[in-house]
Amino acid sequence: MGGQVNEMGEALFAHTSPIHLDQRGWLRFENVVVEELIAEMTMAREVIGEKGAFESAAQRD
């Protein structure tokens, strides 16, 4: 995983766990929820870029 570690010396990683709702054969997908999650992730990236503390430019990347 690139050899990068967090503050505790553990390998950095991320994962997602999709949640699917099947109600009587109908799969439910809410576009507005997806859009909100994307906006939240975009904002988090911006805040991290502005306020994050990095040891090097490579770590920031």
Main β-sheet, spatial strand arrangement = 1-2
Pattern of helices and strands = EEHH
Estimate percent helicity: 40-55%
Structural class: mainly alpha
Shape: elongated
pLDDT < 50 runs, ≥5 residues: none
Please state the CA-atom Rg, rounded to the nearest Å.
17 Å
Main sheet overview: 2 strands, antiparallel
**How far apart are the termini?**
14 Å
Question: How many β-strands, per DSSP?
Answer: 2
Determine the number of helices (DSSP H or I, runs of at least 4 residues).
Answer: 2
Q: On the 0-100 scale, what is the average pLDDT?
A: 81
Give the percentage of residues in beta strands.
5-15%
Q: What's the structural blueprint in terms of helices and strands?
A:
Blueprint: E1 21-23, E2 26-28, H1 31-51, H2 57-60
Antiparallel strand pairs: 1-2
